[in-house]
Amino acid sequence: MMTLRQIRHFIAVAETGSISAAAQTAFISQSTLTLAIQQLEQEIGVNLFNRHAKGMTLTHQGHQLLRQAHLILATVDNAKRSLQQSTDQVAGQLIIGVTSLVAGYYLADLLTRFQRAYPNVEIRVMEDERPYIEHLLVSGEIDVGVLILSNLEDRHALQTEVLTHSPHRLWLPAQHALLEHDSINLADVAREPLIQLNVDEMGHNAQRLWAGAGLQPRVTLRTASTEAVRSLVAAGLGVSIQPDMTYRPWSLEGDIIEARPIADLSQTLDVGLAWRRGTARPALVDPFLTVAREQPHPRKPSI
Asked: What does DSSP say about strands 257-261 and 121-127: parallel, antiparallel, or unpaired?
């Protein structure tokens, strides 16, 4: 299938009359440009250029394609301008409520993409605990929430949409004995000193996890800081079960943190949107939902 890149490369060669000059204009290598033209000719099934010592000139079919190529690029440019104008006309204020874990590890990319798409929208972000964010949503004081959905209480009053399912993995220090295991299960983890993250109701979620497994973990440290968990694990003071979206392979001190799947753990951390049910949504919520649904797949740690 002919691509816009091929079309631009074709126009560059047609207008400069040589591969070398076109390559300089397009900031690519001559070999890359030569291959692109050859592939285009093979795809169309005709010779677009006459090759000779002084350069390249268009064949009759090449002249025909050149006219169409300019029309194609003009159509694409017009479409881009039209879409840009439509997003530029969207303006106002959008108030977003977030919980702390989401604010630290999920929000930045989402807001960057939204502001790029809708530059005239003013964004206000309120960070607080999940129960208070729910209260603000139900009362209409904020427009939309970005939060962990598993612990929502006012489900009858809120409409939700999951954006990403972040699997949990076991964080371990380098050289830990469990790294030699072909498979790790919750019973293995329960025998290790466990570092528990309590922010954003993670402690409550962990209690449900262990109760469901019928196991009693050896929790030796509790903290509200993900960076503290990272440093403590890397220092060899314990292991920790954490969602992939917060994983980084290094602590602040530069020590390695490994991540491994837990065979009998299927629980995910579900991050998503929540807004008030039963009333007309604020006008800016729909554009925000559209951008949020385009969220890239979450990065997973190497195994």
From this structure: unpaired
